[in-house]
Amino acid sequence: MAGRNRVPLVVAVVVGVIAVLAVRAATSPSKSGAQSHVGTVGAGAPAGCVTLNVAASSEKAALLQAIADDYAKDDGKADGKCARVLVNTKASGGATTALARGWNDSVDGPRPDVWTPASTSWTALLRYETTKRDLPDLVGDAKPPSIARTPLTIAMPKPMAQTLGWPTKPIGWSDILALAKDPQGWARYGKPYGAFKLGKTNPNFSTSGLNATIGAYFAATQRSSDLSLKDLADPKVIAYVKAVEGSVVHYGDTTLTFLSNLQKADDRGQGLSYVSAVTVEEKSVWDYNQGNPSGDPKTLGRHKKPRTPLVAIYPKEGTLFSDNPFVTLKADWVTDAKRAVAADFLSYVQSAKAQKRFADAAFRDFEGKAGPLINPSEGLLPAEPKAVISAPAPAVLAGVKDSWERLRKRARVLLVLDVSGSMGDAVGSAGATKLDLAKKAAASAVGQLAPDDMLSLWIFSTQQDKEKPYRELVPFGTARNNLATVKAKIADLQPNGGTGLYATVRAANAFMTTSFQPGFINAIVVLTDGRNEFPADNNIDSLTTALNPEDADRAVRVFPIAYGEDADLGELTKIADASRAAAYDASDPASIDKVLTAVLSNF
């Protein structure tokens, strides 16, 4: 099956790289789904200090800044000079891309002196890309020092895991695959949970998605080492991995999408209907079970613990550790003074005091030792994982990630664009309108679909098809056949009328539900810059009720984009939550290209 016709979203191990986005994520009720790819966590440093900028993966950035604040209080000096450490959140895949193509502060955030992704897999991919392109090696150490560790797990609601024999029976990818391929689903065990549904992130963005893909390949070969390029071409291995991907409900750039939606389902008493399992780090299982799926220490304790907790399954075939390497970049902007601060801060981070902070957040220490929070009452098994996989050689690792584009579950996407009069408002100083920017971004985004993905185009305002505020411009067909027509129709769009949002989403959902295609991710992407202005359908509660599927196995996901400052992100989040998807914030119209790229990461 052909892969996506797209430029890869992280270090493009085969065909180049592009910038990964700066989407504002959401953990509050008014935001949902997208990770905060760029955002300073720490405060400014005093004048005269040597400032060390650290780019850290999202699951540990806030914690690492707290440790940096302790460092400033306890010592804060290197070579006798005042030193301060500022931590910025940056997704591992996004940072890999940015470093490989040349860091752009205006796009990527503050340029890092130290990079700490979630896994050394990303450092290997960066070195692979720079070597291939005859660029300087920014990593240096083949095995950078670790600051904390946490293994990849298959997290599962406890009653489901117990059905499979947890915690005494070894469980792995083979058991997951058997369930996913069985048309009876959970009924094979006499349980009313429906089909097996897996939550898995896009390996172009997410460490858990990358490690889960690697783990599935190793499971397919029934080995825990020496994965080769020949293995990646083995039809039996390909079929195994493709079958695992076939059980995915949708993808995404962060596990928070799944954990946040699972928490909301649990709040409604539906904790066993959203997903059967989600591939996340062990630390994230603990966070979820505290009612804090974002893992942000500042939000711990604000939400009650789930009725149905998750437990960690450590795949019997083997799993990988996220080892959180600490990489002082070999770059010309990293001065000797900064290197001295980096070395001093690394020693501090590996000290007993700082390591206790990691243990208190359910990380294992930098040598892999489990702390007191890793225990069965929290759904975690300290003696696991018994089988540990090392990441394959860089070329093979690149091949694994590249192959995902061919093997991932296919999508059936209805793109719904707002063409109301306010989309004609000018933005920026170049004279472009919101619709101009959206048209350009949408045309680029649909080009990222694989040729055998399915694509349709609707538009909406209050000036469309008679009493209906929406209109179909291009009926469903393969992206291969529809792409040129969709792009041409998008280019011709003109703004007019008001915003008939609710009726459009209701109709789109009804159409997609009626024509639901098993074997595809059935999804609606809605871009709007306003609030509902269609009196004939103005009840948000009625709409969200209609979007909440009675049959979770036939769910249609609605991914709304709040475009511009006047869009109601809160109501769009309600729409996303009801359909068990995610809302995205493009309040800055200039970000729409990046946000649409983020939305496409779900497919």
Care to describe what's here?
The protein has 603 residues and is of the alpha/beta class. It folds into three domains: 39-145 and 325-362, 3-Layer(aba) Sandwich (D-Maltodextrin-Binding Protein, domain 2); 150-321 and 388-404, Periplasmic binding protein-like II (D-Maltodextrin-Binding Protein, domain 2, 3-Layer(aba) Sandwich); 410-600, Rossmann fold (3-Layer(aba) Sandwich). 35% of the residues lie in helices and 15% in strands. The chain has 20 helices and 17 strands. The chain has helices spanning 58-74, 92-101, 105-108, 120-132, 158-163, 173-181, 207-221, 229-232, 235-246, 256-267, 282-289, 336-349, 352-360, 394-407, 434-446, 479-491, 501-514, 540-547, 569-578, 592-600; strands at 39-40, 50-56, 77-78, 81-89, 114-116, 150-157, 198-199, 277-281, 310-313, 321-322, 327-328, 410-418, 454-460, 470-478, 520-528, 557-563, 584-586. Strands 1, 2, 3, 4, 5 and 11 form a six-stranded mixed β-sheet that branches. A six-stranded mixed β-sheet has the order 14-13-12-15-16-17, sandwiched between helices. Strands 6, 7, 8, 9 and 10 form a five-stranded mixed β-sheet that branches. A hairpin with a 2-residue loop joins strand 3 and strand 4. Helix 15 runs antiparallel to helix 16 (479-491) and helix 18 runs parallel beside helix 19.
